[in-house]
Amino acid sequence: MPTPTPPTDCAVRFDPARVQRYIDDLGAIGVHPEGGLYRGLYTPAWAAAMDRMETWLRELGLTTRRDAVGNLFGRLAGTESARVVLSGSHVDTVRQGGKYDGALGAIAAMLAISALGEACGPPRKTLEVYVICEEEGSRFPANFWGSRAVTGQIRPEEPDRIRDADGVTLAEAMRAQGLDPAAIPSARRDDLDAFVELHIEQGRLLEEGGYHLGVVETITGLRHLRVHVTGRQDHAGTTPMDLRRDALAGAAEMIARLTKAAAAMGRPAVATAGMIAAQPGAINIVPRAAQFTVDTRHPDPARRRALVAEIEGILQEVAARRGLGLQVEQLADHEPTPMAPAIRQVLAAAADAEGLRWLALPSGAGHDSQILAPHVPTALLFVPSRDGRSHCPEEFTPVEQIVPGLRVLARALHALAY
Amino acid sequence: MPTPTPPTDCAVRFDPARVQRYIDDLGAIGVHPEGGLYRGLYTPAWAAAMDRMETWLRELGLTTRRDAVGNLFGRLAGTESARVVLSGSHVDTVRQGGKYDGALGAIAAMLAISALGEACGPPRKTLEVYVICEEEGSRFPANFWGSRAVTGQIRPEEPDRIRDADGVTLAEAMRAQGLDPAAIPSARRDDLDAFVELHIEQGRLLEEGGYHLGVVETITGLRHLRVHVTGRQDHAGTTPMDLRRDALAGAAEMIARLTKAAAAMGRPAVATAGMIAAQPGAINIVPRAAQFTVDTRHPDPARRRALVAEIEGILQEVAARRGLGLQVEQLADHEPTPMAPAIRQVLAAAADAEGLRWLALPSGAGHDSQILAPHVPTALLFVPSRDGRSHCPEEFTPVEQIVPGLRVLARALHALAY
């Protein structure tokens, strides 16, 4: 492990206009007709973005390589070790997403590593830009496709089983891009010493606190539930309140109380009901059934369990008291993922050396870093997000808030590889 | 006005099997492929049901007539007066409705008046069966079409303005049934002395209290609202609870509190949220907007106003505290309609004379009686509903619970017309 406070011993500078140009050029690929971007995995827009990144990596003097799933690497070979310090993020986007989520981390790694090579010569350990093919799960229900390939976590049946909304399998989409599903196991890497991902925060903590950067301590744990409430359909005019089993009134009380419980637990606990429906859905009929989803997260494993238990207790108490049927379907469950203390310390020291205000914080969103972390010492660096907006065309970070992140990333990679 | 406790001076008896046969025969017209019935206004099923009623009325010795909107009357002429004592209900149904709501009141009036004519001879005042063409508003958004025609409440532009889901205007649908929209004003009647409607309760009060019959004091007042809540769309993982403006969490608190407020006011106050939606509707996105409907009713004008004011106060308080936008759209507003005390007294005396347990109660549902009541002394008689079910295929009243209603109806009509 490197020493905690390594000074950069060669000057690395970033021209804001040049940084912005890369962001805008990549952000012009995959423009969605209704606003924002869409670069779904293995779509033409995705392929064009990957090609553009490869062209740039070569122009900047890095050696490029694609793996079996289409991840792209740009290599700056080390003089003493073929062990790799990796940095990057994903280039796919959600539908009508923005040009910073993911893409900024790939561009940042490219600019930092190429700048280091130019200013400081070849590193001791090998540095690689990692342009991750997919993270969002927006075309195929297969999140973290790129990072799961590199860590050997893709199950053999996935390529033929998983389909997009048009019925195309992942395997078919791979072949259309000249990729061989049978070769997926070859994407696994065992030569990685560290992974550093730069990403927009997608929240408001840095902006509201006036911080330049965030150093993530833990990527939050998450549980997704679909709650089915069943009552009895009744005439809304003739059925006294005390004789009702109103599924929607019950669901409403559940949502009001579970969101209140998350708020009472305090930051960073969150609980969200994002989808709701009621049947039969007539103004003058007491609903016989209602369904809603719950997304609840906490980066501390014990508090996450406590929050989930409290929410499930609320669901059961409300259902029992109101005489309602309750079925709780678990859609996803991820334990929190701590980032590697040693790499976090390198980021913190780099930020201090640059004289920047930084915040240690949890990530409330999921990231490729959580897939890499169990296999490779990993850390995640946040730059601010304007008004916390993300996954929307309004997603924005001014370049003046990006350049400090680039400087810290370069300084940290220098500390890790030189 | 008649004397309050008139004995029936001629024997009127009803054979349960014959009553059931009429219910079942009419209930076989308009069977919906997914269960229950659908007899939308001016549909073939509706026309077949009206024709069947007319055939029966003639067979039973009554003189039939259709008016401009298709209401059907079966007349037993009075010896002393052409002033009319009217009884009946509607034959249209909601989609997948039952065979008792409305239809039973038309059959009951037909059996009671024809039985009176047979057993007691011609009445002093004229008795008429009123087979109402439409009440439910299920095909066209035009509730109470039949009773509004008779009371002169159809506005001239309605036939050409109001369309069904397929875009057919009311005027077009009338012409297809051989009716002339221009003749609607001729349907107005000024010769009515009383209206008595027999209907299923569509609630549970009679069944739970072990009553044979209900005599309605007031038809409830109603307000229908559509509530639009607007917040801010955010990432469900990265946005702390205390920075959110979650439209669905706000809507859920509103629904939980407004239903609790109605319950706290006690019977017969009711409030129902029957429809709900949230946008954008993704599991991991804090909803930017939510909409729900409110149906709230109370038969006492002052308490109805108090309930509506309390609900509107809840909506405003929750929206203000949570920083949410609020728009409250009023879809309907009806004052409570009291039934005529003199006619209620005739029904009560008839029930007492039959030795039946009856309950004075409000109607939580709307009925043609509320349209007639401001113009003609009107009363509404309820028979029980099994488990309170209505507007569904399960709607049911055993014939043993219908015959007492027929006896009381016949006795009351005798008191009013003989």
Structure report:
Two copies of one chain form a homodimer. With 418 residues, chain A is an alpha+beta fold. Chain A has two domains: 16-219 and 336-417, Zn peptidases (Aminopeptidase); 221-334, Alpha-Beta Plaits. In chain A, 35% of the residues lie in helices and 23% in strands. Chain A is built from twelve helices and 16 strands. In chain A, the strands form three sheets. In chain A, strands 1, 2, 3, 4, 5, 6, 14, 15 and 16 form a nine-stranded mixed β-sheet that branches. In chain A, helix 3 (103-120) links the parallel strand 3 (81-90) and strand 4 (125-132). In chain A, helix 3 crosses helix 12 (399-417). The longest helix of chain A has 22 residues, at 301-322. In chain A, 57% of the residues are buried. The model of chain A is unreliable at 1-7 (pLDDT under 50). At the A-B interface, strand 8, helix 8, strand 9, strand 10 and strand 11 of A face strand 8, helix 8, strand 9, strand 10 and strand 11 of B.
Question: What is the largest interface, and how many residues per chain?
Answer: A-B, 64 and 65 residues
* Overall 3D form of chain A: globular
Order of helices and strands of chain A: HHEEEHEHHHEHEEEHEEEEHEEHEHEH
How many structural domains are formed by the residues of chain A?
2
Going by CATH, what is the homologous superfamily of the largest domain in chain A? Answer: Zn peptidases
How many β-strand runs of chain A?
Answer: 16
